[in-house]
Amino acid sequence: MGPMLTLTDRAAERVKRLISNSPDDGVLGLRVGVKTRGCSGMSYFVEYAKEQKRFEDVIEDKGVKIFIDPTATMFIIGSEMDYQEDKLQSGFVFSNPNEKSRCGCGESFSV
Predict the structure, then answer these.
(1) pLDDT at 75
(2) For 73-95, how does the pLDDT look when each residue is reduced to its tens digit (9 = 90+)?
(3) In this structure, are strands 109-110 and 101-102 parallel, antiparallel, or unpaired?
(4) What's the rounded Cα separation, in Å, for the pair 28 and 53?
(5) Rounded CA gap, 77 and 85, in Å?
(6) Residues 38-66, buried b or exposed e (16+ Cβ, 10 A)?
(7) CB of 108 within 8 A of CB of 40?
(8) Please, what is the Cα angle at 94 between 61 and 73, to 5 degrees?
(9) Under 8 Å between Cβ of 98 and 76
(10) Could you give phi then psi for residue 93, rounded to 5 degrees?
(11) Torsions phi, psi of 18, nearest 5?
(12) CA–CA separation, 19 vs 49, rounded Å?
């Protein structure tokens, strides 16, 4: 089995910037998970992590920590997290080999 989650250099740099600019002290990294929403069923969420939750995996890659919400583990194994920026939007994007379909707007996916 390969790594649970890998980060591109752009994603790692963005995570570093977000943590250093965070208004909260004690941010250890970012938490990645999935929520039920959207037309395809699930969408990713990214939030600040101030502690490691019970049963949570921690990925340390390129000098940053990514906390994997335990309810998301089976949905994101083998994924790559990238950061993209263009004229209309910016944000983290996930290349997930487990996805079976994605809605037209790209907001949600199913496995």
Answers:
(1) 84
(2) 888 899 999 999 888 878 898 88
(3) antiparallel
(4) 12
(5) 24
(6) bebebbbebebbeeeeeebeebebeebbb
(7) yes
(8) 70
(9) yes
(10) -125, 150
(11) -60, -45
(12) 10
SS (H, E, C) the chain: CCCCEEECHHHHHHHHHHHHCCCCCCCCEEEEEEEECCCCCEEEEEEEECCCCCCCEEEEECCEEEEECCCCHHHHCCEEEEEEECCCCEEEEEECCCCCEECCCCCCEEC
Q: In one letter, which amino acid is 36?
A: T
d(CA 70, CA 84): 26
| Contact call for residues 4 and 77 (beta carbons, < 8 A) | yes
pTM of the model: 0.83
